[in-house]
Amino acid sequence: MKVATWNVNSMTARWPRVREWIERHEPDVLLVQETKQTDEQFPFDALSEVGYDAAHYGNGRWNGVAVISRVGLDDVQRGLEGDDEARFISASCGGARVYSCYVPNGRALDDPHYAYKLRWLSSLRDVLAGRAPDQAVIVGGDFNVTRSDLDVYDPRVFEGATHVSARERAALAAILDTGLVDLGRSFHPDEPSYTWWDYRNGSFRRGWGLRIDYLFCDPATAASATAAYVDRDARKGIKPSDHAPVVAELNS
DNA sequence: ATGTCCCAACTTTTGGGA
Q1: Distance (Å) from CA A125 to C1' B2?
Q2: What is the residue-averaged pLDDT of chain A?
Q3: Which of chain A's termini has less CB crowding within 10 Å, N or C?
Q4: Strand B: which bases are under 7 Å from protein Cβ?
């Protein structure tokens, strides 16, 4: 099974790139964040024409998450309990429980949105901690947190900022501590493997990136993996998202 | 430190968010 996660930064603006990417890479499951669409706007019909089922959870202007699958799509759950923003959707696809997550940005360490980000990560941890021990799980998304300074092009630039702070890194570590493997890092232990570059300042050309998008899975699924990588080519060209997809190839 | 992009609307410019 080939699985990917991608923050598309508006499915409306990105649909030509997303369709092209799906046809070229033929993922079995694509986890999407920041569709910025209502369910009515989401391209269910166009996806069906290329062989995919989809489930979407979105309110329109902000956020919006989806699961796109050609290996089945059942038991869809939308939203984290107590959260009214469209940042979480899960489904059963090809024998695995898959999750598409869009973690709050946080904005600044003294902003209420940062406390919301920490609460949200804690809620996600609780959901994942409650899974059955033998359940195959794939958790993907834009976590808006770097795991370590290896994921940051220049840690000095981010002193005192979100995405690198100890509390959010601890909250992300607590998610991994439920028994999940970081597929991208396990295949590339020493490479930065950035997944996001700011649109401003020629950041992509200069290599100013962060690794904030992840595919996590249970150890048995990780043992079946043959590859995991960032598709940097998707960040190039006409009207790219500011995020690149993270892709994993599994023998399960 | 911020050179961009995307969205909505009291819409043809501005403000919020990332």
Answers
A1: 34
A2: 98
A3: C
A4: 1-8, 17-18
Residue (of A6, A14, A33, A79) closest to A240 by Cα position: A14
Find and give the residue nearest to B6, measured CA to C1': A10
Is residue A190 pLDDT above 90, yes or no?
A: yes
For residue A4, which phi and psi values (nearest 5 degrees)? -140, 155
- A97-155: per-residue pLDDT in tens? 999 999 999 999 999 999 999 999 999 999 999 999 999 999 999 999 999 999 999 99
DSSP type of residue A161: -
Q: For the whole prediction, is pTM greater than 0.90?
A: yes
Calpha distance A250→A180 (Å, rounded): 15
Distance A95 CA to B8 C1' (A): 40
Identify the CA nearest to A87 among candidates A99, A75, A96: A99
A2-250 placed in CATH 3.40.190.150: no
